[in-house]
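tool_call predict_complex ligand=magnesium ion
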Amino acid sequence: MAIEIEDPILRLDDLVGGYGRLTILNGCTFPVARAAITTVIGPNGAGKSTTFKAIFGMLKIASGRVLFEGEDITRASQAILLKKGICYVPQGRNIFQELSVRDNLEMGGIALGSEAAMRSKVEEALDRFTILRQKQKAQASTLSGGQQKLLEIARGLMAQPKLMLIDEPSIGLSPLMVKDVFATLQQLRDQGMSILMVEQNARSALEISDYGVVLETGRMRMIGKAQDILNDPRVARMFLGAEVELDEA
Ligand SMILES: Nc1ncnc2c1ncn2[C@@H]1O[C@H](COP(=O)(O)OP(=O)(O)O)[C@@H](O)[C@H]1O
Ligand SMILES: [Mg+2]
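tool_result ok
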């Protein structure tokens, strides 16, 4: 399965890279559409998180390129990537636990330059996430796992990104919070944000996505409309835990 994405916001082009002498990405190529949610699925260890690290300047890249809005950003520093409009929400908990919710948001707006710009972005974040407004003075560690993930997303938004990379946001969250986080991503997409997500929770993630990418052994194996990926019998067999009828001989 393959599709054309016209004028993608991001494109990985034959990326090869890994850790030390260990090559994980073996010529990884795929485009990421604008104002859409693209979900990457694939077996454990396929290189999904590594792909994000490669995009976000955290991996030794041997060859290949990362293009953002047509511009080569391979090996760019994180400061530059943030400035260009890419934010990265890694797997797990990445907020400052001892700081207040509000202080966490302010940390995300450091690059905004002026105090006024920062305050107005914090207000925008608190308008979007009412739970964060209610808890703005609370220590971040008192938030539930799902609320912390929303705070991470909100903090990422402080830098006014065009593209959000988000790695396994649903991990460890209650089904209700997963719904909340996914609904937030859909809302951001509807407002024009481009989102590249990795998810183990493949079915739920694809259901809210526009495009799906299947990654295996550091390569893109399949790319398509999320609905088509969901309906693909091979994908179902491998990742969706579905009962699939075998073709009759
Ligand atoms: N920091 C690291 N150093 C060495 N190997 C790593 C490191 N991080 C991940 N790996 C290896 O890279 C491979 C891909 O990992 P990863 O990208 O995290 O997979 P996925 O996110 O698809 O589950 C795995 O074999 C993993 O053990
Ligand atoms: Mg991973």
